[in-house]
Amino acid sequence: MLVAAGLWIVTGPPPVRGADMAPQVPPLRVPVDQADGIQRATVILDSYSYTPNHLIVQAGKPVELLLTSITTITPHNFVLKNEAAGLLIERDVGAGRTVTVQFTPTKPGTYTFYCDKKLLFFPSHQEKGMEGTLEVR
Ligand SMILES: [Cu+2]
Fold it and tell me: How many domains does the chain have?
């Protein structure tokens, strides 16, 4: 990623991407807070992206995500569901708001989180690219 970013500077702007395309951010290996053992990270919600959109956590340890919306009007949410893996989260994140979600993933695997908001007749936010990956190791 860093190399690619450097090349962009040398060779000019990156190839044209969709306006909705989120900036490329490498996977985040969520650090364990030494004080309380919680794996804690901040995820930025925008229209229509999560940043970072790939989180790596350890199974069996609590995870706390600060979901911070930087939109001014559009409400978003955070849906992460896989009951077998201990994941059952559905939280609204209003424009400009920050909410905290806590969960403990129990089973290694790769799970998709997404925003299921949509306006009638329009594609859902997930269809516009608002989704990400929780990788449990
Ligand atoms: Cu959304």
Answer: 1
Helix/strand/coil for 84 = helix
Q: Cα(92) to centroid of ligand 1, in Å? A: 9
Q: What CATH number has the domain bearing residue 90?
A: 2.60.40.420
| 34 CA to centre of ligand 1 in angstroms | 33
The answer as to whether 90 is a domain residue is yes
CA of 49 to the centre of ligand 1 (A): 8
pLDDT in tens, 43-102: 999 999 999 999 999 999 999 999 999 999 999 999 999 999 989 999 999 999 999 999
Q: What are the C-alpha distances in Å from 32 to residues 36, 41, 49, 134?
A: 8, 9, 25, 16
What's the 125 CA to ligand 1 centre distance in angstroms?
5
Please state the pTM of the whole predicted model. Answer: 0.81
57: containing domain:
25-136
